[in-house]
Amino acid sequence: MTVRRVTKHGERVLKTPCPPLDYEALKAELPALLKDMWATMAAARGVGLAAPQVGLNLRLAVIDVKPEGKPQRLVLINPEIVSLDGEQKEEEGCLSLPGVYARLARAARVRVRALGEDGRPWEMTGTGLLARAFQHELDHLDGKLFVDRLSFEDKLKVLDAVKAAKPNWD
Ligand code: NI
Questions:
Q1: Ligand 1 (ion): which residues have CB within 5 A?
Q2: Catalytic residue among 87, 92, 117, 137
Q3: Yes or no: is domain 12-168 CATH 3.30.565.10?
Q4: What is the C-alpha to C-alpha distance for residues 5 and 28, in angstroms, rounded to an integer?
Q5: pTM score above 0.85
Q6: pLDDT tens track for 132-150
Q7: In Å, how far are 54, 98, 132, 160 from 89, measured between CA atoms?
Q8: Residues pairing with 118 in the sheet
């Protein structure tokens, strides 16, 4: 198990949409890769991590928002949004944009369909933080960062912080 380097804003892999993942082709490598992703997410104290954030152009993300303080590890392979409802506007951040936080409007309630670690389909409705995590991580798989969704005015407010969050190749 390895804690991997988290890619930062400005790196091409974060801007590149991930093609549909061939589960059978990745199956053998998946357990080891997921262990690394969970370890990397925990080390960075995140609630979600998408494959492009460890430099991989794979349609795969992990989420654990720890509802009521208990682990709830979700593996999302080829996730799709089934439905979106309502609106919430909360502060959002991203491990690929350290130090950048902004309030962003998202749907309040999101139903997602994906394949799990075992390759079987699952569906779940998330609200609150989980709904935001679903939208945030799915955006990563489409090559989008949360700051891309800010209004022009809100983008200006975080511009200095975004510049300061340029890649560091340690
Ligand atoms: Ni992120």
A1: 94
A2: 137
A3: no
A4: 22
A5: yes
A6: 999 999 999 999 999 999 9
A7: 28, 20, 10, 22
A8: none
